[in-house]
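Handout, section B. The chain below has 321 residues.
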Amino acid sequence: MNRFFGALAFLSFMVIGQANEQEAWTLQEDECSAEDCGLSLRQLRGEKASEEALIEDELELNLDDEEEEFTTEAANISANGEWTFYAYRSKTDSTYEDTNVNMANLAGVMWYLHNEVVGHCPRKFGITRLLRYKITLHPTAALKQTGKNYAPLCHFDRGACTGPLPVLKDYDKFGFVVGCDKPSFHQASYYKATWYSFPGECPSKPIESKTSSCKQNSPGGLCKPGEPWSKTCTWRKEPAGEITLDDLTHNFNFDKRCKKGFYEYDEKMDRGQGTNFWHGKKDWRVCNRRLGWVKKVWHKKYPSMPSLPDGPECEYGDPKR
């Protein structure tokens, strides 16, 4: 999907820091099993470390803690049918409005990164960070009469819904409602990964072709402040933080190392070189542990923000996903 979202045999991740360029990097040893990937690479290798370093390992790599430590909300649906959840968007360092775009739940954005971004040098599309938004969703009455909370996913590219064509017709029928789909669990084992499409002004045209007339006739579904729910007000968003991919992986200076052949993730080998973060794309246990780590990174950076449940179940996509 073009520029979609943009921008543990794992958590014994490693970062090759100031290694001498002539030193042999024994990357083939930088792997862990599902049983021991809660340990740091330092612990796996039996290396001694200072007390401060061991404390750092414990703080950052203990993935088996119960998630009850996070502040949670009892439910994400209100009495008047509003759903509140986080949506994530992978992005470059550029700043622009995130409307007429695709986003995802946390599992969905990790699916996207794993399949589309981190196997390239440099990272595909120049993705460097994850943005998080607090979404409030209100399906229109016309849509709810069908028994669904979403329309099918609209694939946005440069601000235009590129298909499937029936989605644009759905906007006329149901209003500018949020769409969804679930990518294949068998391609990357992130349970309940879900993608969303958020229609804004003039969703049928790319950014450079959005005329004032088109915006007036097709105002989209993003609500203005204080606007009541309607066919042209179906979702609200609030910025809820951002983290960099380096925050997640600790794979600093990746661009320099990947040019020497040390890729962050190799599809054929199903592992990285110079980092263990992306090992095991089709192992659901490893993917779950990876998601657990990502949640901890978000919580550590934004401890006062609540942990929200995902939005309503997406009705589209293979039911096995």
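Note. The beta strands are 83-91, 101-104, 129-137, 151-152, 156-157, 160-161, 179-181, 195-198, 235-244. Compare this with the example in section A.
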